[in-house]
Protein: FecR domain-containing protein
Amino acid sequence: MELEEIYLLITRYLARQTSSDENTQLATWVAQSPENERTFEQLKAVWQRSQTPTATPETAVALRSVKARLAQSAPQPVAPARRWRMARRHQFVAMLLLVGLVGGGYAYLKPSPAVAYQTCRTMAGQKQQVRLPDGSLVTLAPQSQLRYPAKFSDTNREVYLEGEAFFEVSKNPHRPFRVHSGTWVTQVLGTKFNVSAVHGAGQTAVSLVEGKVEVFDRQEHYLLAPGQQLRAEHATGHIYRQSFDAAKVTGWRTNKLVFRNEKLGDVAGQIERLYGVKLVFADAATAEVRLWATFENEPLPAVLAALQLAGPLSYRREGQVIYLQQPTSGNAAE
Structure:
């Protein structure tokens, strides 16, 4: 992908005009190198400055200069394919310059200091608490990742989550706290909430325990009250605002699992992440077995014993891989 296409994608992302596939494409590009990440952060800083209502005299001068340069570009006969590329290039130049110049004059032309980020990752079966620079506390669920700056800016607090985490945010009305998770941005001033954006889980959810949050999804935004959850089903694109069971949603913090007549195939991921195992079903019927159980910090053998009774099921364990099936004559659990 050419550089101007990347810059156009970034500016469209910042304007919340990108699709889910484009967000994935951009995230892949950012992760390819530290230089790409610095470029993204610099353009994001320019964009944020462009959202301020004030404009300096230098901004007006620079803006007139840009318009003059664009006007001086006399059209020349070109081939159709080249004409298209030149149009895209002019669109890229105009968008980038105008975004930077309107908000911060010629600030984007000056190298911005690179933002130093720290990353915390957890493995399956591992949880970790992270104290952020502002004093906020994040409990990171198994198989999750949190990326955050070593020092927050004076105007906002931005963190990036892949997986699941529980946030206890220090109140600061002058610096909004934002959690970026997939296509969602959850903004708060000070509150307690859970964000679940596990890759491959089929849904994203923000569950508010205390305070208020605002969730932005591209062009839409939703306000939540305590006890409310915003849930998006990836397969259908539907978004629901509903009440939730706090013990079920946040129980993972104390190794508590709550299942309410749910298919084993739908909740297998929770068991896998919490205990660091892999569940393998013998057939589709086994995955359809429904569970109604609560596990309070139970060891894995106790969970497996309960699964036997639910189906009934039989299991065979080989290291960290557990094979599950509906029993036939001659099968026995190990």
Residues 11 and 96 are 8 Å apart (CA to CA).
